[in-house]
Design goal:
Largest sheet: none
Distance between the termini: 72 Å
InterPro entries: RNase_III_dom, RNase_III_sf
Helix content: 55-70%
CATH superfamily: Ribonuclease III domain
Domain RNase III: 32-150
Number of helices: 9
Keywords: Signal
GO molecular function, one term: ribonuclease III activity
Protein name: RNase III domain-containing protein
CATH topology: Ribonuclease iii, N-terminal Endonuclease Domain, Chain A
Oligomer: single chain
Structural class: mainly alpha
């Protein structure tokens, strides 16, 4: 039985232009799967996670906009925690806590702990372990969770879980 030319053409086009830019089972996909497991959140739209783990030097489709949302969610999480711990906390204390917890240094430490330097895609010559790169990717990850869940609550939960685990491991190392 011969394959009709129109079907053959469709099969050739489908093979030449796969719908997924990253091949299933690739190292990047495997790393993204491990990251989801590590953060305790499974993406419904995995392209958001791919974008979050893509630096601006690598592609125009990157996580910079997601990082803006991720920073806001991280600061919100820290402020919420400060007020939950002390309902009478001064505004300056809450602001300081939000700034401190969402700082680049703390952010980069959390990102390094979850393995972002080994996952984030960067252009040649860019250090994937540099604090601004790691922090930007972590913030983009938190922003991607918020967009995927259509809720900053989910992003806050992921950020606080990662922050608490990192803080506990730092304390244990002392």
């Amino acid at each position: 039985m011969a394959i009709p030319p129109s079907l053959l053409l469709c099969l050739l086009i489908a093979a030449a232009f796969p719908s997924h830019p990253v091949a299933a089972g690739s190292g990047f996909d495997a790393a993204l799967a491990r990251l989801q497991s590590q953060i305790g959140y499974d993406f419904r739209a995995p392209e958001l996670l791919r974008r979050a783990m893509t630096h601006a030097s690598y592609s125009r489709e990157n996580g910079r906009a997601l990082a803006v949302l991720g920073l806001a969610a991280s600061q919100s999480a820290a402020a919420l925690q400060a007020l939950a711990n002390d309902h009478d906390a001064a505004a300056s204390v809450v602001a300081h806590r939000a700034t401190e917890v969402a700082s680049e240094a703390v952010c980069a430490k959390i990102g390094a702990r979850v393995g972002i330097p080994a996952i984030v895609r960067v252009a040649a010559g860019i250090n994937a372990s540099a604090p601004p790169v790691v922090c930007g990717a972590l913030r983009a990850l938190i922003g991607a969770v918020a967009v995927d869940a259509n809720s900053t609550d989910a992003a806050v939960k992921v950020f606080m879980r990662l922050h608490e685990v990192t803080a506990a491991s730092s304390t244990a190392a002392m």
